């Protein structure tokens, strides 16, 4: 009887360790995705400021930059203790991808800025919603819950700027 109890205790103990390891791996993947999306968003804000000539688009880039700067301390706190498997090559690749999109695309610069920012915001919203839905990490879920409304606001602002920009383009073509 004692042997069975000890064996059962060991099996339960090892399976919970495996579950903890799996949860930590999933958390590390989520944190990695968050870091990359946030870095991409900040880089896009920088490119928008440097490449766009439209005042509304530039202001949108400034608002995005402010969002990432304001939420950064809370993000760092939420990720404290999480393993982040990133290196300089990951960031170089991210920067190169963004740079290449700005060089090789034949859209107007403002349209491209808005499109890339929209893609980043949509991906970020989806990830934050998934994090909240799964509730695997309490700290990261709480941060997502706090950060998500501002992303919705950024998305709404982007759509207003895009509509205004399209209206301007239509007036110019007439």
TrEMBL record:
It comes from the Bacteria. It comes from Sphingobacterium bambusae. This is DUF4142 domain-containing protein.
């Amino acid at each position: 009887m004692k042997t069975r109890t000890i064996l059962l205790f060991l099996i339960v103990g090892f399976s919970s360790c495996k579950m903890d390891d799996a949860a930590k791996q999933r958390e590390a993947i989520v944190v990695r995705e968050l870091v990359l999306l946030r870095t991409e968003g900040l880089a896009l804000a920088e490119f928008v400021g440097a490449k766009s000539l439209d005042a509304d688009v530039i202001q949108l880039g400034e608002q995005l930059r402010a969002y990432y700067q304001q939420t950064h301390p809370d993000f760092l706190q939420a990720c404290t203790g999480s393993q982040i498997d990133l290196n300089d090559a990951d960031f170089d690749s991210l920067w190169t991808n963004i740079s290449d999109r700005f060089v090789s695309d034949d859209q107007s610069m403002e349209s491209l800025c808005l499109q890339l920012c929209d893609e980043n915001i949509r991906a970020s919203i989806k990830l934050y919603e998934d994090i909240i839905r799964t509730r695997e990490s309490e700290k990261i879920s709480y941060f997502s819950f706090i950060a998500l409304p501002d992303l919705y606001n950024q998305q709404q602002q982007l759509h207003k700027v895009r509509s205004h920009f399209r209206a301007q383009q239509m007036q110019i073509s007439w």
